[in-house]
Amino acid sequence: MAVTTMQAYDKYGSPLFVNKEEEISTGTSIIACTFDGGVMIGADSRTSSGIYVSNRVADKLTRITDNIYCCRSGSAADTQAIADIVAYHLDFYKSETGEEPKVETAAAIFQELCYKYKEQLLAAVIVAGWDGVNGSQVYSIPLGGMCFKQNLAVGGSGSTFIYGYIDANFKPGMSEAECRQFMTNTLALAMSRDGSSGGVIRLGTIRSGKPIEREIISGVKIPKFSQD
Fold it and tell me: Active site located where (predicted)?
């Protein structure tokens, strides 16, 4: 016999309770881009559970090592778990060899996990960083576990709205200032069009041999391209 569940609604027609089975999702707009001298990563900060925004200032830029970070999209739980596993493997590698892990090594471990468990996971990541062997690198690992090395990678639900802007404005070998403005504008456009993206813009800059520099762009500092 079928079981009927009753849902309560408020005066605006929204459900009062969220189904337990609805995962916390990072929604999302994420981007990583190489520039002359380093690599820059960025993301919005909205996570949601069903129709509700569960966190408007989430951090989707996750440390793997001091010089390698990932941008997460998909299920928050899945991507956090994978990032923790990769960070553990690379920390163990550094302890055993005394060498700093390479960015391509981190990307290979992410790819292996995402492909091996592609039926169980909802996870897409961008791996970015700098190492002394290959310099600045960006790897895109979408749903399914493929891995692509690119100068620029975007992901998440907001990415579908910004390909035209990227095609018109991206150029290889940008300066750091040009890259920062390009990424800020790109994320602002995605956040203005995608209902699953929003909050603040988080940026991280990784230069050769230096720790990451992080920045938050919020409020009136977020560029606007149309009237509300």
Answer: 28
Out of 4, 5, 28, 205, pick the active-site residue. 28
Could you tell me the two tokens for 57? 């200032």
Mean pLDDT, residues 67-89:
95
What is the average per-residue pLDDT within 62-81?
95
Per-residue pLDDT tens over the stretch 19-38: 444 566 657 899 999 999 99
**What b-and-e string marks burial along 40-77, b requiring 16 or more CB atoms within 10 Å of the CB?**
bbbbbbbbbbeeeeeeeebebbbebbebbbbbbbbbbe
Closest CA to 132 of 226, 68, 198, 205: 68
| 102, 85 contact by CB (below 8 A) | no
pTM for the model stands at: 0.86
**Among this protein's residues, is 62 annotated catalytic?**
no
Which domains are seen in the chain, by residue range?
Answer: 25-220 (3.60.20.10)
Q: Is 192 exposed, middle or buried (0-12, 13-18, 19+ CB in 10 A)?
A: middle
Do β-strands 30-35 and 24-25 pair in parallel, antiparallel, or remain unpaired?
unpaired
Digit-coded pLDDT (tens) for 167-209: 999 999 999 999 999 999 999 999 999 988 999 999 999 998 7
